[in-house]
Amino acid sequence: MLLRCKEQEKYLTFLTNNFLLSAFTITQIYKARWQVEIFFKWIKQNLKIKTFFGTSVNAVLTQIWIAMCYFLLLAYIKYQTKYKYSLFYLHRLIKETILERLNLVDLLNLNDKLLPKIKNTEQQLALALY
């Protein structure tokens, strides 16, 4: 199918086996599909979902919703505490200190030199031995 692009002043060719739809409808389908691809790229980059644990619609949606809630909580914590580093660094910080009994605001105010001193690996090893 051939469609004239008004903005770029040229013709675009779209390949399809559905000859019942108009060229404009085919372009809208391609555009919608591209939006889905952009959404899944954003999920992989920001929500850190590499694979889905289940294959049912409910399992996939549940995993996406949980990851989005976690992402929004991180963004809210970053906004409320005026945390100066990226969301990814905040995620790593929480992930590394999840078993420590620390106040989150105090944790976010630590600098890079004090953070290794806070982590007590002996307690985590003791938990693993039992």
Short synopsis of the structure:
Helices cover 59% and strands 6% of the residues.
Shape: elongated
**Mean pLDDT reading:** 77
- The end-to-end span amounts to 68 Å
Order of adjacent strands in the largest pleated sheet: 1-2
Helices and strands: which structural class? mainly alpha
Q: Strand portion, in percent?
A: 5-15%
Q: What portion of residues is helical? A: 55-70%
Biggest sheet details: 2 strands, antiparallel
Q: Which parts are unreliable, with pLDDT below 50 for 5 consecutive residues or more?
A: none
User: Given the structure, what is the number of helices?
Assistant: 6
Radius of gyration, CA atoms, in whole angstroms: 24 Å
